[in-house]
Amino acid sequence: MIPAIGHLPVEAVDPARIQHWIDTMRRDGLGPRMIGNCTRVVGSAYRQAILLQIVRTNPVAGTKRPSIRQPAIQTWTDTEMTGFRNPQYIGAFAPLQPSPDAHDAYGLTHT
Known about the structure:
The protein is an all-alpha fold and about 110 residues long. The chain has a domain of about 60 residues: Tyrosine recombinase, N-terminal domain (DNA polymerase, domain 1), CATH 1.10.150.130. It is built from 5 helices and no strands. The longest helix has 20 residues. It starts with a helix and ends in a 21-residue tail after the last helix.
């Protein structure tokens, strides 16, 4: 960040400069999540500067950042659900249940 905007007074940074910084990070191979983290830090600093009446606007607000792709949700098929409900497999989860004489961190007995 320092080579891109750190040498400038806070009031001299505008959305065009922030967008150039974002585009440069992308060209340099940084991923969308890292770019998002960097812009969140700078945006947060500018939001605080607005509250302190140091600047009037947040230059990060007017920029286009790369989107983070969420993985697709995979749901179980009816066959997989039927297999999971099979009593043969349900017994496999029995060890996950606390024993009747187990105590929690506070010394309370589970009933």
